[in-house]
Amino acid sequence: MLGIFCLLLALDAFIITQHFTFYGVVIVCEDYSPCVCEIYQPYGLIVHCGNANNDGQQKTVSANDVHVVERIAVNCSTTTGPLRLEIHPKAFRSSIQHIGHFEVTECDLSQLNFKYRSDTTGLMSFSFSRSVRFKGFNPLPFFSRLKSLRIYEYQDFQDWNEISVRFPNLESLFLDGTLLGDRSVNQLVSSIANSKRHTAATEFMGKPTHPHSGSHFVFQKIELR
Questions:
Q1: CA-CA distance, 136 to 134, in Å (whole number)?
Q2: How far apart are the first and last CA of the chain?
Q3: Which segment of the chain is annotated as a signal peptide (predicted)?
C-alpha cells in the first residue's frame, strides 16, 4: 500500500464545478489531477495525492502547487514500513499563509526540513505520530508562533530539549505513548513553564503505562496560560 498524502481544503478556495452543501456552505471538487478529490464528512473536501517513487523507499511532495488548504495530513505508511518524506520548498506556495494545522504520520523524517514552511504566518498547530528519524526543529520564525504541539505514539522522538526553545508561545502540549520518564517529563514541564513568555501556571495530566514503575505515560497533557 502506497503512502497517502491528504489535504483538508479551505472551503472558500474553489471554482464551482460540482455542488455539495456542507453545514450550509456550498463546497466543490475541482480537477486536482493526478490527485483525487472527494467530499468527506465531517471535514469537507479532501484531496489524496503523492505516491512513492520507483524504488518504493521515498515519498516526495513536488513543487506543483496544491491550491489553498487549511489542514494538511501526510501519511507515509506502507506494509513494509514508513517511507522517507521530502517536501519541496514550493509545494504549498498558495497555502503558505492559510495552513493552520500540519500533521505527519508514519513517516521516515530523516530527509525532512521545514523550508516549505519558512514564510508561513498561519500555522497554529503541529502533530507528529508513529514516525521515525526526526532530525530536530529548524530555527525558523514560524515555530515561535506555534500554539499547539502534539507528539503521540512516537518512541523514536529525542528532541525534547528543543521544545521550550523553539516554541516560546506554546499554549498546549499533548504527549501520548512516548518513552519519557517522570524525571524527563518534569524537566520538560519546568523548562516550558519557566520560559520568559509564560507564567508559572501549568497544568499536567497523565497516568503511567506501568502503574508501579511510573516510567511511561499513556497520556500527558500540559497546558500553559
A1: 6
A2: 43
A3: 1-17
Residue with cell 456542507: 22
Mind listing the pLDDT tens digit for each residue in 132-178?
888 888 777 777 788 888 888 887 777 887 888 888 888 888 888 77
CA contacts within 13 A on the Cβ side of 16: 6
Please state whether beta strands 20-22 and 83-87 pair in parallel, antiparallel, or not at all (unpaired). unpaired
Please, where are the H alpha helices in 98-174? 163-166
Nearest-angstrom CA–CA distance, 57 and 75: 14
Question: In Å, how far are 19, 63, 124, 151, 174 from 127, measured between CA atoms?
Answer: 32, 23, 11, 6, 9
Residue type, 160: W
Residue range 12-50, pLDDT digits in tens: 332 222 333 444 455 667 666 556 677 766 666 666 655
Specify the long-range contacts of residues 196-205, CB closer than 8 Å, at least 24 apart. Answer: 196/168, 197/168, 197/169, 198/168, 198/224, 199/224, 199/225, 201/225
Strand locations in the chain, DSSP E?
A: 4-9, 20-22, 25-27, 36-40, 44-49, 58-61, 69-75, 83-87, 101-105, 107-108, 125-129, 148-152, 172-176, 202-208, 217-224
CA nearest 204: which of 196, 213, 180? 180
Number of Cβ within 10 Å of residue 84's Cβ equals 20
* Furthest-apart CA atoms within the chain: distance in Å: 59
Residue 138 to residue 145: CA distance in whole angstroms = 14
